[in-house]
Design goal:
alpha/beta, 38% helix, 8-stranded parallel sheet
Length: 245
Amino acid sequence: MSLPPILAKLPLPIIGSPLFIISNPKLVIEQCKAGVVGSMPALNARPAEQLDEWLAEITETLAAYNRANPDKPAAPFAINQIVHKTNDRLEHDMQVCAKYKVPIVITSLGARTDINEAVHGWGGIVLHDIINNTFAKKAIEKGADGLIAVAAGAGGHAGVKSPFALIQEIRTWFDGPVALSGSIATGGAVLAAQAMGADTAYIGSAFIATEEARARARPTSRRSSSAIPTTSSTRTSSPACTATT
């Protein structure tokens, strides 16, 4: 299989799925430090101007980490862009990504040649979400560098195909980067994804319980607090990180 250098050197064969609302710079940074490609949706930054602040935080923090750890640098990070015409922030968010030369852009809801060319222009690569073989071929034809196979069990864009069927169909014609998404949360599942033909596993839910994720319930009143899990019950390190080391 042919992998671009940015993916071929990953410490761990894992890409953190961009979780709507939940992913943020702190989670992305800690994922990257742990050897996982950390990612977040551009649309999590609200208002739009916040994206510039967040990308500055990510790039500056990871650069400092890499200077302090030359023998164990962080994994690259990724930003998810919804490229559908209903996203009226796309042009703005792409300009901010260009400013910081985001190394990996994950595109969803439409394969677009102009977006792929823009990312290639600053030296990044594009991985595109697909749910079937037809969409996979369109994505590569339009210039995506790799695919995220959203199979049954995955969140987001509701893949329904068995991962076995989807990966096998893709591998009959494509030898580039493929990440597999769908109910992957342990080291054993990551290994199974690789045995199936994927290069990396695409994991989201396992990171929700981390300290850095914006998912911890906060009591809004004395009456409701007893029904909400305490902070200590959700402070766990990601099983995806620990299970594969």
